[in-house]
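Lab notebook, bench 4. We co-purified these components, and the gel suggests they stay together. Before we commit to crystallization screens, I want a quick structural picture of the whole thing.
Request: model the full complex, all chains together.
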Amino acid sequence: MIDLDRVVRDTPAAAHGVFLDSAGSSLPPSVVVETVAAHQRREAQVGGYRAAEERAADLAAVRTSLGLLLNVPVGTLALTDSATRAWTQFFYAVPLAPGDRILLCGVEYASNAVAALQRAAATGATVEYVPSDPTGQIDLDALAGMLDDRVRVVSLVHVPTNGGLVNPVREVVDLAHAHGALVLLDACQSLGQLRVDATALGVDALSGTGRKWLRGPRGTGFLYVRPGLVTALEPPVIDLFGASWTGRQSYALADDATRFELWESDVAGRLGLGAAVDYLLALGPDAVESAVTAHAATLRGLLAEIPGVTVRDRGVRRCGLVTFSVEGRDPAEVKAALRARDVTLVTTRRKSTLIDMTERGLEQFLRASPHYFLGPDQLATAARAVADLAR
Ligand SMILES: *Cc1c(COP(=O)(O)O)cnc(C)c1O
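Here is the predicted assembly.
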């Protein structure tokens, strides 16, 4: 159980208005803000290098905390500046030859898709899309039919940016592995709201971001690469952190996942990410998952009762993203009108999840993502505000 009084005390801003954008960039707890600010102040006093040296143990602990959260060994993790950087560092490292196949999912995220298309054009591989089933989740039968030994990599988005569905991961991994294909899981929208055990899921790689449900700072992200696979891959971009210059014509890559990492980083942001992960671990990922799932179900129920409102979420299993349209109202206008009442949410557009939105004939709708730090009264307030606009 989440102690609402306590988490609101830890995040005073959560009590003001109704913040419904934890899927975009959440409100960090005070400990994250303080960790970042304190390190920046220290950098201003003694310089960034000395300040980082003073926090060497804490910086190492960021990886330990992430390892605990994902249930993976520390050496399988690379810290990055975004989930997209993590995703591309892995994806571009997968060897591809003419005729090789890349499978993307029906709710693929635009940044992943454009990278896959670019890579396919450069290597002669092809990009294909695994259809979604009538519930909206990845069609496992269709996937089984598409897999063959030319499929090198399957990209699966755990939770899409445009709705509350949760894709089945283990089933996809088992099917893909039977054909020797790698599975790269985009866990941007699941980590921090759902328990994600990368080892139990069996994925080959996973990308995540700090600022969304994890409540960490902007400009932070990370990559997990399964043990045993790390040393088989040559990262597309390296520097003196992931590799050492060993001679006139030689270099050696790090033998753990730091080979995917670059040297320069926002050290304060990384410490803040560690604080955010520790905060989540202390609350308990299961308690967070129950609270977020329940909040989203409540909000979805309230919205569904409003005449003129259509809830857009699909999927068998649903999580913290709540999407909807208001009949006859432009989503951008609804978003602005709600902001004027201090209800913060965003719109999600066709271009972000092109295949899914095009198939559903939708251009844009609203996305609300309530975190555990909201109270039931705030969800009711948000629904009342939407009802006023729907009239
Ligand atoms: C936000 C998001 C990303 C990208 O994360 P960044 O940290 O902005 O790179 C990738 N996939 C999904 C599903 C997302 O929602």
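The radius of gyration is 21 Å. Worth comparing against the SEC data before the next meeting. The first helix runs from residue 4 to 10.
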